Amino acid sequence: MTLIALFGGIESGLIYALVALGVLISFRILDFPDLTTDGSFPLGAAIFAVCVTNGINPWLACLAGAAGGAAAGMVTAWLHVSLKILQLLSSILVMVALYSINLRVMDAPMIPLNGEPSVFSPFIAEDYSNQFWVQPLIILGFVVVAKLLLDWFFSTEAGLSMRATGVNSRMARAQGVGTSKMIIIGMALSNALVALGGALFAHMQGSADVASGIGTIVIGLAAVIIGENLFPGKRMLVLTLSAIIGALVYRLVITFALGSEFLQSFGVRQTDLNLITAVLVVVALRLPYIKRYFKRKRSS
Question: What is the pTM of this model?
Fold first, then answer.
């Protein structure tokens, strides 16, 4: 693995760390199986691309992308809490609708961003000599701020109410918690982070692509599950950190697998990304059982 490939893996890992934090909120905190992420990820990229190509400041364009993702998450939650549609079905409906919405926003399947300003532009040298390490550093700033804000939010009364809603909604309602409101806020926050990741992914890729969200939920789940097995814990500080580390580990493993000449000799190709992701998720899910098996072996 070359140094540039390593930094590229870290950069994409940090982008998907935002996705992992979003999935952590929906999947772990709210216990809400949410496929909206496959639509809100490219939605964030689409809104960012349209804003930037129309002369809007790239930092504001990122915020606009995150706001679009929050709106998508709120619609998913509203379908569930108000219309009583099943959680999974609600998210599938919004995900399907977002494909058409993204095409309408972009007015094309892809918007190239070459030559357009980005959040990285003020920090990159004219000869692009520092680009390979400056971009991951700036994205790390986004991730650190997101983690700190989440850690703070989930220590507040509203955050604790949201966690209680995910653990036992009936008990939370009995204690006076507005569970419907908590679900809507949580889903908005989750998809805002995912869409922000999509906007930053458009930076890295140099374009906004309507198909860029395919498999996003699987990647987010892989990061969360890998992180939980590497750093198990119940405290919010640990949960958010484990999701970030899980995303980094996931992307570095993918980068190694796709760039390994040894694996390529067995026929592994760039097109096998989703297959490798599925295998990683299966391995991560089986890790606790494997650990217990070897513990019993050592003790017997």
Answer: 0.92
